[in-house]
Structure formats: C-alpha cells, structure tokens
Amino acid sequence: MYTFESRIRYSETDSEGKLTIASLINYFQDCSTFQSQDLGLGVEYLREQHLVWVLSAWQIVVDRYPCLCEKVVTGTQPYDLKGFLGYRNFFMMDEEGRYAARANSLWSLLDTVTGRPVNIPGAMKERYGLGERIPMEYAPRKIQVPQEGETLEPIVVRRQHLDTNQHVNNQQFIQMALDCLPENLAPRQVRAEYKRQAFLGDVMIPRKFRAGDTYIVTLEDGERKPYAVVEFILTI
To answer: Of 31, 155, 197, 206, which one's alpha carbon is 20 to 30 angstroms from that of 39?
Structure first.
C-alpha cells in the first residue's frame, strides 16, 4: 500500500471549513500519481511508451469530510491488473486510523498512437504489485440513467479543464456535474462512469435528474451521446 501524509489546506475547504469532494478526488488522484512517479511509471515513462491510463469509473464513499488543518493519510494500491484493465483502491484516514473516505476505481491502459486498449506490460505489473481490496460496499460500475431530465446550459471545455494528457481531467467532469446541483451539497457517495474523452473546445450539455436523495448528471454532446455520467447520493 502506498501512502502519503498531508494536512487539509484552506484552499481545499468549503464555506464550513471542510474538505470538498473535488479536493478529496484530487488527493486520490495525486496519490496514485505519486506512486507511479516513485516507481518510475509516471508521466514521463508513459509518454515515452506512448501509453496513457484513462479512468473508466469511480466509486467514492465518504464517511466524513475532514476539517481545515486536520492531519490525514491518503493511500492507494492496485488490487487487480489484467488485460488492459487496472482496478485500484484509495482511502483517506485520520490520525486515529479511521477511514474518512474510501474509493474503488477502474482504469484502462491505451496506446496514444492508435487510441486502442493495450495489455498492461509485465514489468509494470511487477513494479506495482497487488494488494488486498479494502473493506467497503462495492457498487456496480454502470449507472442507470432515467429517461426524463432537466437540460441545463452548455459547458465549453477550457484550458483549465485539461490535464497533461490534453483531455478533460476526471475530477473536472465531477466538478462540472456538481456545479449543476444546489449549493453546499456534501455527497456521501459519488459514482462516475466515463464514456469517452473530451478535449479543448468540446461542448458538453448537462442533463440533471433527481430521485429523493440521489442526483444524476449526464454530460452529453449535441447528439445526446454521453461523455460522462455522475451520480451523487446525499445519504447512505
């Protein structure tokens, strides 16, 4: 299990002084990036090998949102690597060793030249190793979308939405979806299903659905083909 220690910063908190869901996702994303970099499998390695990891799905369960200045430990480890797919857990713990949040994720390894999936190299599997799945209630990857929803104002992909792979970062999709909801929501579970990549200048049309304590936001193109589907559950 790979871990790093940190402290919740003011810039990572909401109006109540608690870590935002977007900042939590950034912690998880940074953690896996740190691990890959430390193992020699980071951004430079992937670029040289013409490879890219693309996130296919998130499930994030929040036990509680840590507070400003609180010390936390963030960890991650793949628990299965097969074919072109990588399954990876994440967690954030407080100083007492209690979970603040846990997550499951599914990644696909693509060839950047052909855009097609490619089997994970044996050397990459060996360096990462595998850990045990962390305890949590694992949800299905697929998100069921209702038929009727509210169409919202289009979102144009700007430079600030892009990462080093020059496509919209997974956290940015979730933030776009969250911005479609009422203010100050602190979801207890987030699931995201990524359908395809979005690039600079693409126009995404959000559609919002609500059923009780659950919101679903789809980010679609003009032909109703989704880039991403995001589900927010307020109570679990």
So the answer is: 197
At 173, the amino acid letter reads F
Q: CB-based contacts of 3: which residues, under 8 Å, 6+ apart?
A: 31, 73, 74, 75, 76
Candidates 153, 142, 158; CA nearest to 216 is 142
H helical segments located in 153-219: 170-178
Q: Which residues contact 174 (CB under 8 A, 6 or more apart)?
A: 21, 22, 25, 58, 190, 192, 230
pLDDT in tens, the chain (236 residues): 999 999 999 999 998 999 999 999 999 999 999 999 999 999 999 999 999 999 999 999 999 999 999 999 999 999 999 999 999 999 999 999 999 999 999 999 999 999 999 999 999 999 999 999 999 999 999 999 988 889 999 999 898 888 767 778 888 889 999 999 987 788 999 999 999 888 898 899 999 999 889 999 999 998 889 999 999 999 76
- Going from the C-alpha of 24 to that of each of 9, 20, 29, 44, the distances in angstroms are 11, 6, 9, 25
Tokens matching residue 111: 């060839």
